[in-house]
Amino acid sequence: MPVSDMVAMTLDEVAALSRAILTRHGLSPDHVEAVTATVVAGERDECASHGVYRLLVCVNTLRTGKVSMDAAPVIHDVAPALVRVDAGGAFAQLAFERGLPVLAAKAKANGIAAMALNRCVHFAALWPEVEAVVAHGLVALATTPSHAWVAPAGGVKPLFGTNPIAFGWPRPGAYPYVFDFATSAVARGEIELHRRAGKPIPEGWGIDADGQPTTDAAAALGGAMLTFGGHKGSALSTMVELIAGPLIGDMTSAESIAFDDGAGSSPYGGELIVAIDPAGFLGAQAAEHIARAEAVFDGITGQGARLPSQRRYEGRARSLANGVRVPRPLYDDLQRLLD
Ligand code: NDP
Ligand code: PYC
Q1: How far apart are CA 227 and CA 241, in angstroms?
Q2: How far apart are CA 75 and CA 72, in angstroms?
Q3: Do residues 83 and 106 lie in contact, with contact meaning Cβ atoms separated by under 8 Å?
Q4: Which residues touch 16 (CB under 8 Å, ≥6 apart)?
Q5: Catalytic residue positions, numbered
Q6: Measuring CA to CA, how many Å separate 45 from each of 170, 182, 300, 309, 311?
Q7: DSSP 3-state helix, strand, coil percentages of the chain (rounded to 5)?
Q8: CA 123 / ligand 2 centre spacing (Å)
Q9: Which residues form ligand 2's pocket by a CB distance below 6 Å?
Q10: Rounded to the nearest 5°, which phi and psi values hold at 295?
């Protein structure tokens, strides 16, 4: 999009816009702050499908009445290494924020700990969460089902969610090693952005309602998305359904979309976050072994390949220095949410 079709904003302006929109639509102050933090982080890190665009998705969800505007998360200390946070039907961000210190303390006490977020509405990227866990010096894994939009490899009917998996590893003196990707070929938000821009999608992202390959974004959204890596992505997506669904007493993606019942809200269900303290296995030698892991990263970058999150960290540096640019049509749609 030409620069003239973009609106320049500072990150403070992005945060103020997010707060104004969410407040205008009835979200309570604690949730406004927690949601705004992830929306700003997404825009700052140049993750178009999970930045300010998500405010449209979020307001759509608020309008359906399928999300609590003000539920306070309730923390259940279920076992020495397990914590469960009941989000009470609200967005996941505040539940994560409130549970994180408990998870981190349990991981440090036990070497490994897990947190289940239950009954939460999820529309966000997972990397802000794994980065927050890694900031405690821990290794992190996070995953959540979504809505049944994705066909299993070899099938044609939506069954899985876009089911992201995110992983974080602490690095001395550097941003953490973080990857965060959908187990579908691409996040649904990316296909929605193609539809908004009237652009075709690459082959391999989706099939139409008749099960035929399509490059039409709307047809793929109305048909089924495809997993990445064929049967491998399909098996990983199945695992996400299991460990962040029934294993923590929460919904599968098929159950989430049935609960939505055509309202068009964001996915509803659970999320599993695992935190591992390197000192658990290694004690006083943890730093020495974590330093040794750097050779793996050097081996990747040393041959000209890039690390996941490198693009995002570079985007972060640009945005912190210069602010961000939002496509004019999206900016106008966001302004209309203030009417
Ligand atoms: P992408 O395919 O854009 O990227 C996924 C990951 O791969 C990122 O960590 C990215 O790093 C990295 N990566 C991309 N290209 C390369 C490369 N050439 N070399 C090395 N690493 C690379 O993401 P998706 O479309 O699959 O997902 C986007 C977001 O959507 C995720 O943040 C995910 O959490 C979110 N999502 C959330 C869902 C939910 O239910 N809450 C559901 C589905 C998705 P970089 O960012 O630096 O490019
Ligand atoms: O882009 O697939 C997606 C998505 C689902 C929930 C949040 N993001």
Answers
A1: 13
A2: 10
A3: yes
A4: none
A5: 49-50, 190
A6: 19, 17, 22, 9, 8
A7: 45, 20, 35
A8: 6
A9: 49, 122-123, 146, 162, 182, 187-189, 266-267
A10: -60, -30
| Residue 9 contacts residue 323 (beta carbons within 8 Å) | yes
For the domain spanning 71-184+227-307, the CATH number is 3.30.1370.60
CA angle 161, 164, 168 (to 5 degrees): 165
- CA dist., res. 136 & res. 139, Å (int): 9
Instruction: Report the helix count and the strand count for the chain, using DSSP H and E.
Output: 14, 12
pLDDT tens-digit readout, 300-337: 999 999 999 999 999 999 999 999 999 999 999 999 99
- Segment 167-183 mean pLDDT: 97
- Ligand 1 pocket by Cβ (under 6 Å): 49-50, 122, 124-127, 144, 146, 162, 164, 166, 179-182, 186-187, 190, 267, 306, 308-312
Burial class (CB in 10 A: 0-12, 13-18, 19+), 48: middle
42-94 pLDDT, tens digit each: 999 999 989 999 999 999 999 999 999 999 999 999 999 999 999 999 999 99
Query: In this structure, which ligand is nearest to the CA of 179?
Result: 1
Distance 299 CA to ligand 2 centre (A): 32
Instruction: Give Cα separations from 89 to 68, 125, 153 (angstroms).
Output: 5, 18, 32
**Helix (H) or strand (E) segment spanning residue 113:** strand 112-121
Is 148's pLDDT higher than 90? yes
